[in-house]
Design goal:
Strand order of the largest sheet: 6-5-7-8-9
Structural class: alpha/beta
Strand content: 5-15%
Largest sheet: 5 strands, parallel
């Protein structure tokens, strides 16, 4: 044999070596998958806990009565608001004991016991006008209807700015009839969202939508590419959700200064709001209806009600509101409720949301203003 290793033995040795390497790689892959699975499980538990806390009763609220607690339990079923063209997002149909939303995405408003007129009042705004924290009949439009006997429609939506309200007005302009009144109730969302860096005129989900569109649809990264598929898979994991939460906290730190401490930015945010009101007024008047642009009250503009109030939010309101008041005084539609006296106990939270009693104050004030 001349001391040489037979061919079959050499082949067998190679096979054994390959098997050994495959076994080692398999063990490494198995351990890696187990570690990834454990990391995913931990991230899922952490993000699920955070989401539950976010959708549950906020911890900085005053003591809640049973009705308010029931509202938050039911509210969790409406939290996943789908995308809607032109307005960003819009509530889906929902039917509950405290919250009812029509197929058109409108919060249900109580009908007047006896209508005084065929005219309708169309209410637009963010979560305060929508009725965050109260049942259907405790929202401002419902209380206004009960007080005045006038028909009302609640077009407001959670977290909307007045540009989104303007877009919804355009989509529903044919619903506005001669003699009707249209109310835009704005200020808080427009200032707070607009005062983040580079966000003048933006709505609450601009960054979220940009992140979702960050992978281009063109080849070689198109929707049928491997990279796109892997990216889409990663974005569905809890680890990625945890990363997004951490990034969001870094971008919007609770103690970060508002970009509106720069008076140029503050005035730009105000101008954006004012121009939207002007456009809405022209559209409404073209239908022979009345228009009211309301600067909503905020606890931040009168006094700091809670130590958890964020520096960004306080500075955004206190810096932007004076510009809105100054420019709004030149508008025939303008009604300044920024300093309306509302007892602390009627603020539902540290922002601008009100209890039913607080909404009663707003409804009563609007009843004296609206024709």
């Amino acid at each position: 044999m001349n001391g040489t290793i037979p061919q079959w033995k050499s082949s067998l040795k190679s096979i054994m070596t390959i098997k050994k390497n495959v076994g080692t790689v398999s063990i490494i892959l198995l351990i890696t998958m187990m570690m990834a699975g454990l990391a995913e499980l931990c991230a899922y538990v952490f993000t699920a806990k955070a989401q539950l806390e976010a959708s549950s009763t906020p911890k900085d609220l005053p003591s809640l009565d049973p009705e308010q607690l029931e509202f938050f339990t039911e509210y969790q079923g409406t939290a996943n608001i789908p995308y809607k063209s032109h307005v960003g997002w819009q509530s889906k149909e929902f039917h509950g004991r405290y919250i009812n939303i029509t197929g058109k995405g409108l919060r249900v408003t109580g009908s007047p016991v006896k209508s005084n007129t065929a005219h309708t009042i169309h209410f637009f705004g963010g979560s305060t006008m929508w009725g965050y924290g109260v049942r259907d009949d405790g929202a401002i439009p419902s209380l206004f209807t009960k007080r005045t006997g006038l028909n009302s429609i609640n077009y407001a939506e959670l977290a909307w700015t007045n540009r989104q309200s303007l877009n919804r007005l355009i989509s529903n302009l044919s619903e506005i009839q001669k003699g009707d009144s249209v109310v835009f109730y704005d200020g808080y969302n427009d200032a707070v969202y607009g005062c983040y860096p580079g966000m003048v005129g933006a709505h609450a989900r601009e960054q979220q939508i940009n992140d979702a569109l960050s992978v281009t649809s063109y080849t070689p990264y198109g929707r049928h590419s491997l990279l796109f598929g892997l990216t889409a898979f990663v974005r569905e994991t809890s680890i990625y959700a945890l990363y997004e939460q951490i990034k969001s906290r870094r971008v919007h730190q609770s103690d970060s200064h508002s970009d509106c401490t720069n008076h140029v930015t503050a005035e730009a945010v105000s101008d954006f709001i004012i121009n939207n009101w002007r456009a809405a007024e022209q559209l409404v008047k073209s239908r022979g209806a009345n228009f009211y642009c309301i600067l909503q009250p905020s606890s931040f503009f009168t006094e700091r009600l809670n130590p958890k109030t964020t520096l960004h939010d306080i500075e955004s309101i206190t810096e932007v509101y004076p510009y809105i008041i100054r420019a709004g005084s030149n508008l025939s539609c303008f009604v300044d409720l920024s300093r309306l006296k509302i007892p602390k106990e009627h603020y539902f939270d540290i922002q601008a949301h009100l209890t039913r009693e607080g909404n009663e104050i707003i409804a009563g004030t609007l009843a004296k203003t609206i024709e």
